[in-house]
């Protein structure tokens, strides 16, 4: 059996995030949502008979708010703060410069790695899922558990229900 080298360890992202929030001036370090009980609902029918909704944290491109292309530096101006919905029929111009990711080792040039709409469309054609909902939905990443739980999640649920979704795929970017 071969052991990994000493420096091959998980990235301490939780501690880094706590320190980052303190450095931003927040009085308390970031606290991740942690629930004693997590609701789970098994699928009512197979995916091949289900309508699937895509929920993403990717942001619509916003001209005039700075660089947003692959590998762009973190760009807080490109954030969005309200749930949005767009057609699932065409590939939208969405970006991920507004979120933190490892820009040294990942260049984000392939949107299929963080926005799998095309793969879901292929899954429909292959019969692995019955259909996509007519819209995909954008979930804001505004660092507020309260807003996420009380405002954004209910809005996303309502939109998925309007679209007749049987299941949702959440893809954080």
Summary of the model, kept short:
The protein is α/β, with parallel strands linked by helices and 173 residues long.
Structural description of this entry:
This protein is α/β, with parallel strands linked by helices and 173 residues long. The chain has one domain (46-171). It contains three helices and seven strands; from the N terminus they run αββββαββαβ. Strands 1, 3, 5, 6 and 7 form a five-stranded mixed sheet that branches. Strands 2-4 form a two-stranded antiparallel ribbon. The longest helix has 18 residues, at 145-162. The chain starts with 12 loop residues before the first helix and ends with a strand. The mean pLDDT is 92.
Key phrases:
single chain; 173 residues; alpha/beta; five-stranded mixed β-sheet; two-stranded antiparallel sheet; 22% helix; globular
List the helices and strands and how they pair.
Layout: H1 13-23, E1 51-56, E2 59-60, E3 84-87, E4 94-95, H2 117-125, E5 131-132, E6 135-138, H3 145-162, E7 167-171
Parallel strand pairs: 1-5, 1-6, 1-7
Antiparallel strand pairs: 2-4, 3-6
Unreliably modeled segments = none
**Percentage of residues assigned to helices:** 10-25%
N-to-C series of helices and strands: HEEEEHEEHE
Q: What's the overall average pLDDT, rounded?
A: 92
For the largest beta-sheet, the strand count, sense and barrel status come to:
5 strands, mixed
Q: In whole angstroms, how far apart are the ends?
A: 35 Å
Strand content: 5-15%
Number of helices: 3
Overall geometry comes to globular
**Assembly state:** single chain
Query: Structural class of the secondary elements?
Result: alpha/beta
Gyration radius, rounded: 18 Å
Strand segment tally: 7
Summed up, the domain count is 1
